[in-house]
Each structure stands twice: as structure tokens, then as C-alpha cells.
């Protein structure tokens, strides 16, 4: 259930970003949900490998390089989705990675931390 809520939340963020930035294109709500699922799979399969291979630079940058890894995850999702989901360039992908990270952190703190108390 937690995974589905996260997928739908990310899809909503993607749709909002597509309305806010000219360089982000999503063909439909279904494409946004599918892009969110693909990003989730990329984060489970590819991201851990990238983290292992880039561990020295991640340690040197005190973890900030993880944003670059998140950027590559978004770029891989863009590539896998074809024309249904498109983000123009590295820097816009980087900005989206930052926004997604912040929004997901806030969402998790608001929703899941309140259930514990």
C-alpha cells in the first residue's frame, strides 16, 4: 500500500512539474503513473549499483553526489519511457531530482511519521 501511495504521489509531482517547466513533457496521467513506476524500478535495480560504483566520490562530497545519481535515475526513466515522458537535459533533470527528493521527504514525514505517534 505504501508503494502505491508513493507511486501516485510521484505521478502527481511529475504532472505538476510538467505544468510548471516547459522542458518537462508528460503525454497523459497514465504516462505519469507509468513513469513513476519505471522510476521506482530504476531506483530498486540501477541506483544501488550506481551508489556502490560511486561510493568514494559520494563519501568525498558528503553524500551530495547522490543527487547526481538521482538525476541519472530520472534520465534513465526518460530514456525508457520514450516520447511519453521527456525531461530536457541534465540540469533540468537535476532540478527535478532535488524537487522529488524534497517533496518525498516532506510527504514521508507528514504521512508516515504521524501514524507512529
Automatic annotation (TrEMBL):
<keyword id="KW-0812">Transmembrane</keyword>
<dbReference type="InterPro" id="IPR007165">
    <property type="entry name" value="Phage_holin_4_2"/>
</dbReference>
<feature type="transmembrane region" description="Helical">
    <location>
        <begin position="89"/>
        <end position="107"/>
    </location>
</feature>
<feature type="transmembrane region" description="Helical">
    <location>
        <begin position="12"/>
        <end position="42"/>
    </location>
</feature>
<keyword id="KW-1133">Transmembrane helix</keyword>
<feature type="transmembrane region" description="Helical">
    <location>
        <begin position="49"/>
        <end position="69"/>
    </location>
</feature>
<protein>
    <submittedName>
        <fullName>Phage holin family protein</fullName>
    </submittedName>
</protein>
<keyword id="KW-0472">Membrane</keyword>
<dbReference type="Pfam" id="PF04020">
    <property type="entry name" value="Phage_holin_4_2"/>
</dbReference>
Amino acid at each position: 500500500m505504501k508503494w502505491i501511495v508513493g507511486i501516485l504521489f510521484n505521478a502527481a509531482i511529475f504532472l505538476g512539474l510538467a505544468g510548471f517547466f516547459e522542458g518537462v513533457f508528460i503525454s497523459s496521467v497514465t504516462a505519469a503513473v507509468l513513469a513513476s513506476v519505471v522510476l521506482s524500478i530504476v531506483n530498486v535495480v540501477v541506483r544501488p549499483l550506481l551508489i556502490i560504483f560511486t561510493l568514494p566520490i559520494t563519501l568525498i562530497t558528503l553524500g551530495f553526489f547522490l543527487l547526481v545519481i538521482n538525476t541519472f535515475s530520472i534520465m534513465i526513466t526518460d530514456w525508457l519511457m520514450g516520447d511519453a515522458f521527456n525531461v530536457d537535459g541534465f540540469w533540468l533533470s537535476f532540478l527535478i531530482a532535488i524537487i522529488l527528493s524534497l517533496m518525498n521527504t516532506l510527504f514521508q514525514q507528514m504521512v508516515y511519521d504521524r501514524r507512529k505517534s
